[in-house]
Amino acid sequence: MKTTDCKILNLPKIADGRGNLSIIEEYKQIPFKICRSYWIYDVPGGCERGGHAYKKNTEFIVALSGSFDVVVNDGTNEQTFHLNRSYMGLLVPQGLWRVMNNFSTNSLALILSDTEYDAGDYIMDYEDYRKWNNQR
What we know:
It is built from one helix and twelve strands, in the order E-E-E-E-E-E-E-E-E-E-E-E-H. It has one helix at 126-135; strands at residues 7-10, 13-14, 21-22, 36-41, 49-54, 59-65, 68-73, 78-83, 88-92, 97-101, 108-113, 122-123. The strands form three sheets. A five-stranded antiparallel beta sheet has the order 1-9-6-11-4, with no helix packed on it. Strands 8-7-10-5-12 form a five-stranded antiparallel beta sheet. The longest helix has 10 residues, at 126-135.
């Protein structure tokens, strides 16, 4: 996979005077079955999350509140995506290194995954990632 395989996907936004509503359904707004969901919040200023790659897992990341950056790297190229709208998210395919940073106060990140948690799917060291990526 390449950083150019990451895509910002717009979600339905149903506007209402009482507040807006958006939807994420598997195989409709995102191209996979949702096997796991988790969220990241209360990130102290200056801290990063992620800092790993998945061998098999694909993710869809949404800034439900606030904003943050997702930096993806394919071992050669790097691209930064700024997420700050709850009606759009970033599709991050398997095999890419990712770091989340620049979290605003009270930001809330929702991550939907196409695999269940598997510690063996993670590559936690960037040099190990580059070696693994070059062997594919």
